[in-house]
Amino acid sequence: MRKLLIAGNWKMNHAVAATVDFCRDLRSLGLEGQRAEVLLFPPFTSIAAMVSLLQGTPVHVGGQNLHQESKGAYTGEISAAMLKEAGCSHVLIGHSERRQYFHESDAGVNAKTRKALEYGLTPVICIGETLEEREKGVTNAVIKTQLSGALEGFAPDAVRKTVIAYEPVWAIGTGLTATPEQAQEVHRYIRKFLAEIAGDDCAELLRILYGGSAKPDNAEELLSETDIDGLLIGGASLKADDFYRIIEIADTINK
Ligand code: 13P
After folding, report:
1. Which of 6, 9, 13, when mutated, tests ligand 1's pocket best, judged by the most ligand atoms within 8 Å of its CB?
2. Domain 5-252 maps to which CATH number in 2.40.160.30, 3.90.580.10, 3.40.50.720, 3.20.20.70?
């Protein structure tokens, strides 16, 4: 059985002062004994504060991006070693906002995934179609291209160490959520494709998260779907009580 993973992507929100408040609130709600795994992606400058404030809790902390080289003259970039040293265990790779505004390609996602694995960071690889692609009926083709590009050349052992996040671009920050059926259909396709490239065992173990306007009100129906193994939450992860509510909901799911 796959353990549910509830992850929050803060994007460019919550500097240190807001991070301190959030962590204090989250701790006061109680972080013991949850069945779901919990993960947060704060902005880089808030990582150290979060790691220290959530020390002793089971919450994992991740970076929102990394550079594909180990170090060097890449002004403005951050390395896998830096994230690791700051206390990160995970890193987001290929978020649609990175693809859209910073022109990240599948080849870049592949190189970053390789670097993350080299440094023992768990890559959370984001994929998803635009509204135009969905309306054209090419969702599966887009998913297949992104996934095969991201994982090309990886042995099943390496694929096994990743997490996939399906985030339909049209559902991000729009209040439009994919219906649980729409999400499940794509998640099933992703798992089937993973089985083709890395084998059934790997595909069965890998967690596939859904992201795109996930919130307390829709968490239960999304998480009840067979192939939805967690959520990657933007807006609703910024408030400790909303995020905590989703963790609580995850703990009620039996499948
Ligand atoms: P929202 O939950 O705000 O739609 O954002 C989703 C997302 O992009 C998480 O990575």
Report:
1. 9
2. 3.20.20.70
